[in-house]
Amino acid sequence: MPPIPADTFVLFGAFLAAAGRTEPGIIFAVTWFCNVASSVGVYALAHRYGQAFFITAVGRHLLHPRQIQQIGVFYHRWGTPAIFVSRFLPGLRALVPVFAGIARLPARHTVPPIAVASGLWYGFLVHIGALAGNNWPTVVALFGLVSRALFWVALPLLVLLALWWWKTRRHKG
User: Fold this and answer.
1) What's the count of helices (H) and strands (E) in the chain, helices before strands?
2) From the CB of residue 132, how many other CB atoms can be counted at a distance below 10 Å?
3) What is the pLDDT of residue 87?
4) Residue 145 pLDDT more than 50?
5) What integer is the mean pLDDT of 58-72?
6) Bigger pLDDT: 173 vs 122
C-alpha cells in the first residue's frame, strides 16, 4: 500500500539513472534521506503527542491504556531489532516508528535501526534498478516476487497484531 508503492518509484528512478538521465547515488540519497526523515518525524510526533492522544476518547477506542503499556514493554525489550526487521516488511514499515514514539523508546534506539535498514532496503532497490536498466520487465517481476514474499511474511504478523488488539480490548471484570 498505497496502490503504487513508493518502492516502485525508487526502482523507476534507478531505471532512469541507468539510462543516463541521473545518477543512482542521487536517487539513493534523496530516497534514503526522505524515508528516514519522514520516519523520524512520525516517531518524534508520536513521542511528543502520542500518549496524550491515547488519553482521549478516540485514542482509548483505538488502544486501551493496557495495550499502550504492553507496547511499551515490547519496545523496551525488542525495540531496536523489531524496528530494524520491520523496515523490510510492507504494512508494518510505517507503523513501527509510531509505536516506538508512543512507547517513548529513546531516539538512540529508534533512529539507527530505521536509518540502517532503510539504507539497506533502498540501496538494494537502487542497485537492482540501476543494474537492470534496460530490462524493466525483469525488475518489476523480481520486485513483485519479493513484495509478495514479504507480504506473506507481514500478513501473519498483521493478523497477530489485530488479534492481540482485539483480545486485549476486552475489559477484565
Assistant:
1) 8, 0
2) 19
3) 86
4) yes
5) 85
6) 122
CA distances from 49 to 64, 82, 103, 112 (A): 16, 22, 11, 22
| Cell digits of residue 153 | 511474511
What is the full DSSP assignment across 58-79? HHHHHS-HHHHHHHHHHHHHHH
Distance CA 40, CA 34 (A): 10
Helix spans in 19-64 (H): 24-45, 51-53, 57-62
The H or E element that residue 136 is part of is helix 136-169
The amino acid that residue 69 corresponds to is Q
CA angle at 40 for the pair 4 and 99, rounded to the nearest 5° = 85
Cell of 51: 500518549
